[in-house]
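Dear colleagues,

I hope this message finds you well. In preparation for our joint manuscript, I am sending the Protein-export membrane protein SecG (Oceanihabitans sediminis) sequence together with its predicted structure, so that both groups work from identical material. I would be grateful if you could confirm receipt.
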Amino acid sequence: MFTVFLILIVVVAFLLVVVVMVQNPKGGGLSSSFGGGGTQQLGGVQKTTDFLDKSTWTLATILIALILLSNVAINKSGVVKESKALDIENVTTPVAPTTPATPAVQTEETPAE
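The corresponding structure tokens are as follows:
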């Protein structure tokens, strides 16, 4: 079930990126590239900005809803996975580091004369 949500989230996120990239940050967007700078064209290009704006908000809302629903799907998957990090029985006590043994320094003994 989570895989289905993951695929839907990726598709909606991709569509959202495409819709945002088509828009012009100054409001011209796709409609200005067709020559609809201030007048309404025969095909209704002026309404393109309205469509892009509504589709952005719709896709963003769908994306948030899918993310929240995927969280529910994760919790209700029925598979209990226990973390080994939280397992108290397998915790080992830290061992204090030991210093290596220092080799005995041999001094040359001078013969007594």
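For the figure legend, we might mention the following. The helical segments are 2-22, 29-33, 48-75. Residues 1-19+50-76 form one domain.

With kind regards,
E.M.
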